[in-house]
């Protein structure tokens, strides 16, 4: 990060980042052939040595702030992001049987890329009256994105097993034509922020978006999708007591959708942007100085895209995520820092596909309960050293969208998962430079579980691992 302040009214912050990934080998994707989970196999890499992915990423931008006067301010930013995957290899194990046998397929692509340029300008005017502060924002945003999915080849490598590693030579890939899409979005809006110390806060905003996506698929005419919705947001907070704040909010937005996964027959196809809505309300309570508790209700709704029984990635309904979120964070005692959170989620898919029994009502890969707790304690008799503990728990997940007669018309689910992590940090000077040595043991009790992804693939949880890292702040 580079900061430049030519005067007390002007500040410019610029950044640049570059990431090279010359050798990335992911665990193969597992798909069972029926209403059962894969067998409990040894947790090791069972894929092919040559299914390697390579990529490079770089991003840069600048954000400038100019104070025109005491009450007027201009902020603007320009940003660039590029991700180029020169080689992508995804290994699929389909129709996995109870003994671990499967059909193995490799999906390969070359020179897939995503490049995006975005910018924003905001003019703000602030007015104070007594202790009250009012701010009006006028904003303009723009984004241009081009995604090239690269030529793709799919090769069937025949029988294999997730229980026993079976090697195979790398074939000659016959790549087909590539596909791409271009996205342009312009948004203008106006917003208001009001703050009254000790009483409350109010935020309101309205935006008009203009969105266009042009998708180019091999052998087809360009597919153009457009949308120009009004987007609104509003939040209100009331200070009920010096320690207790109640809040509520509503947002209607436009969200870019992901692309079809590698196991879809229409892989890499990109659905249009999704109209979403979110409602939330809750309280923030200061238990003690530096210790805060938050409890909130939320309700998020958006179109639901997943694979149908023919493995076509398309919209199959609307998904609603509603639930309770709890968090506790702070320093309840000298040297002790705790962060805890819980999400109790009722996620449900509705629509014609659910009513007809094409898919089940539970979104794939979503857990109804997620619990996390982390604590770090700095030893009072040796301040450079601290020890830490992490507890993680989730409930079962839907492992596929289909319903099965063998399961009484229900979807296949994974079991719950609980892991415990322990570690320590040692802070010291390395050639007069602050440094931290970090040692951590993850999944201390080596628990075994299956995790489900949104595309219906499964992978076993990581084994117990010990990691050591050294970080220095130059």
TrEMBL record:
Keywords, ordered alphabetically: Cell outer membrane, Membrane, Receptor, TonB box, Transmembrane, Transmembrane beta strand, Transport
GO CC, one annotated term: cell outer membrane
GO molecular function, one term: siderophore uptake transmembrane transporter activity
Subcellular localization(s) per the UniProt record: Cell outer membrane
Predominant location category: membrane
Annotated spans, Disordered: 103-132
InterPro entries cross-referenced by the UniProt entry: Beta-barrel_TonB, Beta-barrel_TonB_sf, TonB-dep_rcpt-like
Domain TonB-dependent receptor-like beta-barrel: 30-444
Membrane topology: Multi-pass membrane protein
Compositionally biased tracts (Basic and acidic residues): 122-132
Name of this protein: TonB-dependent receptor
The organism's taxonomic lineage, starting at the top: Bacteria, Pseudomonadati, Pseudomonadota, Alphaproteobacteria, Sphingomonadales
